[in-house]
Write a structure and sequence with these properties.
The protein is an alpha/beta fold and 208 residues long. The chain contains 5 helices and 9 strands. The protein has one domain: Aldolase class I (TIM Barrel), CATH 3.20.20.70. The protein binds iron/sulfur cluster (SF4).
């Protein structure tokens, strides 16, 4: 059986979403409605790009410099089975670290019984958990707001000199043939400053 993911977007090779040089999968669909969500167009649970995990793994590893994957969204745990399969397949090809965002807390995930959750957690090196709270967005770190916790589920990324919680945020602006996108966790100030440059309201990360 082909395992498929419902994918909002991907990025092959970035330094803005975790240590090293990573490929990113943003899944489509999220059960939460955080005020100030940076990617509201990826909240609806609607078909976006339905792609098999084998094909997606090949896409994400197309650049041989990629040494890690980051799963974001949308809500990755809503597609835990598919992402666990993706991680396993990609890791058969290359030794990769895995970073995953989720709006659920780790404790809730461990007790959830949702298919694929345990399998995905067993693949993840760093889990950034909890919903985004705009009032607690301090503009620091890879997490969106200070209530979110960085869990080192393995020691792999603990001593690589990357401060997940407190580092200065970096954001890449990528210009493609059909769209301009932001990759990273942008500060509110960056979004405000970009708005007049690009025209219209504050741009949305993922698709500006
Ligand atoms: S959990 Fe993330 S993707 Fe979902 S609504 Fe909150 S900020 Fe947006």
């Amino acid at each position: 059986m082909v395992v498929r993911l419902n994918v909002a977007s991907t990025c092959v090779g970035t330094a803005a979403l975790g240590p090293g040089f990573r490929s990113v999968v943003w899944v489509q669909g999220c059960p939460f409605r955080c005020k100030g969500c940076v990617a509201p167009e990826w909240i609806p649970d609607v078909p976006a790009r339905l792609v098999g995990v084998e094909e997606l793994a090949a896409e994400l590893l197309a650049d041989e410099r990629v040494d890690g994957l980051t799963f974001s969204g949308g809500e990755p745990m809503a597609q835990a089975e598919g992402l666990a399969a993706l991680a396993k397949i990609a890791r058969r090809e290359r030794d990769l670290s895995i970073v995953c965002f989720t709006g659920f807390t780790l404790n809730r995930l461990r007790d959830s019984g949702v298919p694929g959750t345990v399998e995905l957690l067993s693949e993840v090196d760093v889990l950034i958990d909890g919903r985004y709270v705009r009032e607690r967005d301090d503009g620091r770190g890879l997490r969106g707001s200070a209530n979110q916790i960085v869990h080192h589920l393995t020691g792999r990324l603990k001593d690589v000199g990357y401060d997940f919680a407190g580092r200065e945020r970096t954001t890449e602006i990528r210009v493609g043939e059909r769209e301009v996108s932001l990759v990273g966790v942008p500060t509110a100030d960056l979004l405000t400053r970009l708005a007049p440059v690009l025209g219209g309201p504050a741009p949305i990360p993922g698709r500006v």
